[in-house]
Amino acid sequence: MQLPQESEVVHWIDTPTPIGELVIAGVFMTNENWGLKEMRSLEFYSMALILEGGGIYRDETGVEMSVQAGDCIIVEPGLQHQYGCEAGGTWKEVYFCFKGSAFDDWRRSDRFRDRRIFNLDNVDFWSPRWFRIVKSRPRNFFEVVATLTDVHLLINQVVAGEQVDWSFEERLEASKQHLQSWPPNTTIDWDLIAGECGCSYETWRKAFSKQYDISPARFRRNALMRQAGRLMTRSNLSNEELADQFGCSDGFHFSKLFKSVMGLSPQEFRKQLTSDHTKSVDVHD
């Protein structure tokens, strides 16, 4: 995937959940002497992936080491630390910050072992996983939980072993799950998803279609309409409200798209939900 060419800060919505809370995210880059003047501490966790360049990491425990592109830096709350590039160096990172007691268990686990730096090496493989989180724009509790779940999954992948070498088929399956879980009514970053497989969009699209016998766009459409069906089983949203939530121009567009996938119009679907044939309605992926 193509890396950003300028710094950016993402301010997430302030929504606490049982599995944590999102704080801030973004991309930072500089070619100046940055980050090494004094120690600092945070009130939350920070997880950064160095995309280009490198420099030094130090903290109050006495750790001091060189870091470079492909290294992941995880900083826990309250730890006095500093990292950045020296004069004449360059630094580009993608990062996100989060907090919550659910993340404290990671810090106490044997797998973490008080480590700060994880050598991931392959930026092309790992960066799409960071950008998936950074580019998420959760608008409600449900979407915040989904993004935090991705954070937990990424931590698990990182601490499980830096040299994880997924096969192309495993990466393809991961991209399929990403496509399925992409928030409704938001524009899909196809290049980002393709980047999870380490290839261009066109190469990924052809591989996806061959592997699953369906194009990515059609798979996404089907997944959205099944999701709409599941929502209809537990809510009384109108076609217009569903259209707005699932990225359709109006209620008529939603109705037409829903029927093309489910074989029933929304009205027919609702009738079946209240009939003895409810069990025959398939809303599962």
TrEMBL record:
Q: Which GO terms describe its molecular function?
A: DNA-binding transcription factor activity; sequence-specific DNA binding
**Could you tell me which Gene3D superfamilies the record lists for this protein?**
Homeodomain-like, Regulatory protein AraC
Domain annotation HTH araC/xylS-type: ranges: 169-272
- Presence of keyword Transferase: no
| Keywords on record | DNA-binding, Transcription, Transcription regulation
User: What's the name of the protein?
Assistant: Transcriptional regulator, AraC family
Q: Where are the transmembrane segments?
A: none
Per the UniProt record, one Pfam family is HTH_18
Tell me yes or no: is Transcription among this UniProt entry's keywords.
yes
Q: Which organism is it from?
A: Coraliomargarita akajimensis (strain DSM 45221 / IAM 15411 / JCM 23193 / KCTC 12865 / 04OKA010-24)
